Task: structure prediction
Amino acid sequence: MRQHPVATETPSTGTDRVKRGMAEQLKGGVIMDVVTPEQAKIAEDAGAVAVMALERVPADIRAQGGIARMSDPDMIDGIIGAVSIPVMAKARIGHFVEAQVLQSLGVDYIDESEVLTPADEAH
Result:
C-alpha cells in the first residue's frame, strides 16, 4: 500500500478549492444584515446562507456625522456563537488591524468595505 507523505507545515492560507467552495455555497442565496445574535438566528432559521454582522447601516452612521468602523467585537462574537451559517463582517479599507481582529474572532468572510469611513484622509 502506497503511503502519502506527511506535511510538515500547516499552510497559512486556504487552498483555491476551499476559497472557491465557500463562495459557491453562497451563490444564489440570501445574505442578511443583522445587528444582534437573535436576528442572526432568525435569519438562519428563515434560510439565509450567511449573515453580515453590523452595528448599524454605515450610511446612516455617516449621515449623522459619526464614524462608520468595524462593528463591536463582542457583538460579532455573539452572532458567531448563535448561528452555524457563515458570518461576515466589515473592516475599513486599508485598516489591517480591524481585519486581524475579525480574523481572530473567527469571522468567515471579511469585507474590506468602501462604505465604512476611511482609516485616514490619505488612504
